[in-house]
Structure formats: C-alpha cells, structure tokens
Amino acid sequence: MTDQAVAEYRIEDLAHHSGATVRTIRAYQDRGLLPKPERRGRSNVYRDTHLARLHQIADLLDRGYTLASIKELLEAWDAGRGLGGVLGLVAEVHGPWTDEEAARISREELNERFGGRPDDDAVDEACDLGVLERIPGRPDQFLVPSPQELAVAAELYAAGVPLPAITGHLRELRGQVEHIASRFLEFTTEHVFARYLGQVPPTDADAAEAATMVRRLRPLAQQTVDAELARAMRLFATRHLQRHLGTAGAPGPTGPSPVALPAGTVRAVQELVGADHVAEFVRAATERELQARTMNDLARRSEA
Questions:
Q1: Which helix (H) or strand (E) holds 128?
Q2: Residue 250 burial by CB count (10 A; 0-12/13-18/19+): exposed, middle or buried?
Q3: Residue 300: is its pLDDT beyond 50?
Q4: What does pTM read for this prediction?
Q5: Is 251 helix (H, G, I), strand (E, B) or coil?
Q6: pLDDT higher than threshold 70 for residue 79
Q7: How far, in Å, CA of 225 to CA of 181, rounded?
Q8: Are 35 and 53 in contact (CB under 8 A)?
Q9: Phi, psi at 43, each rounded to 5°
Q10: Which is more confident, 190 or 93?
C-alpha cells in the first residue's frame, strides 16, 4: 500500500481494512456492487473509493437492507442522487421507539427477583423472548432491553403467577401487539408516507421530510394503544368485578352470579340501600373506585 493520500490496496489488503473476506469482495464485484478495480499487470488494484463502498454496504446490511436494494441505492448515488436523506430516514426508523434505557442484571439479582432459586429453563425462555440478552464472555450478566417488562414479570411472579404462564402470556400478547403495529404501519404508509415513497430510492428531500414525519408520528402509536388499553381495562375490569361480586340471583353480564362478598358486608349494604339494591350498589362502588384510581394515576403522572 502506498501513501495515505493515494492509497492502493491489493484484494487481501482491502479485505483486511474493510473487515470483509476476499470471497465477499469478489462476490460484490460480480453483483456490480463494487466499481471495477484497476488492472495493473497481473494484479488488481483497489483504492479508497472501494474501501468506502465496502463500509457503506456493511452499514446498509446492518440496517436490514438486502443486497438487491443496496445495489439500487448505490446505483442512484452513482447517478448523482445522494444517499444522505435515505440513510437519515433509515437511521430514524432504526432509532429507539421508547425513552426506556436498557440495563444490566446479574444472575444472582435475577434469581433473587424470581424466587431465589436458579431456573435455567426460565432464563433460556427469557433469552428466547428477548426479555434478557446474554453478554458474550459474561455468563453471570445479562442485558435487559426493557427493565419495565422485566419488572412486570417480577411483580406477576410475586403475585403468584407461575413463570411458564407469564412467558406464555407474553408470547400471546406479543403476537397481538405485532398485529397492531403492522396495521398502524399499513395505515400510515397508505395515508402519510406513500407520497414520499413514490420512487425508489426516494430523493434526499423526500427522505428527509419522511424522517421528520417519523419523528412526529413515532409516539402516536404508543399513545393510542395506551389510551385504548386503559379504556378496555376499565370496561372489562368493571364487568369482571360485577360478575364476581354480585349477589346471588342478581343478573350479571353472563347470568346470575354467586355472592363473593363477606356475609357481614352484604348485611351492611342491605341495611344501607335495601336488599333489592345490593348488586347495583356494588357495581357503583366498583366504578367509583376505578375512577378514583384513574384520577390518582393521572395526578401522579402530571407531578412526575
């Protein structure tokens, strides 16, 4: 290799500096992803432009692009259309979709939070679900992408829910949430992003504007799901309590319900509102308690 200003590489040197293998470099040449090297005698000579191109390809592969789509992007760039806007859009989409920060947890801490006894099967399941991530070279340490999700699992376990039931519920929930995310993307693509993605690859201006729109719309999916989940939980929790706390013979959402309240409580309610209004009183008290808790939760959020 010569001076840095006019760097030249043999294919082996190019592989060393780029991190790609010689075989990969030749495959990229065959696909038209790399410019042809200069032929000098019996050797091929590569330059910094080839090294930069290999770095670009590696970056796009890391972002999830296929080689076919990478070729289209690079051809557009070679034709005079920049990649800056497209890469900015890709970076925006691949960026964090939550303010939550990942944390680390030791195997000892993990055991303490879930019963105090090692459970290799449960750890393997958590890693398979992505709730935990193994750290290479540190078998006693794990990365926790979502500490909130792990905290929820710990609370459910402390409340008496078995670990297999927790992971099974998470798998079911994840499938449903992924369906919601897919529908939200289809909806926004049809009504918002279609105008930016009319040509592939989009122009720098369209890609930059689409990236700005991603930043604006990113929180909307979570806000919508939060609001609808709160509404649904209140609705179904109220029905659930009515079904389990109603008086004998009182019609509930699915028919008569047994008396689940202590007998002394039922007598006190009967003396207060009369025997014919016990179920109605319980329902009203339940709804009032749920409303109070909702208001308290909103007040805590505003103070935070």
A1: helix 120-129
A2: buried
A3: yes
A4: 0.56
A5: strand
A6: no
A7: 10
A8: yes
A9: -120, 155
A10: 190
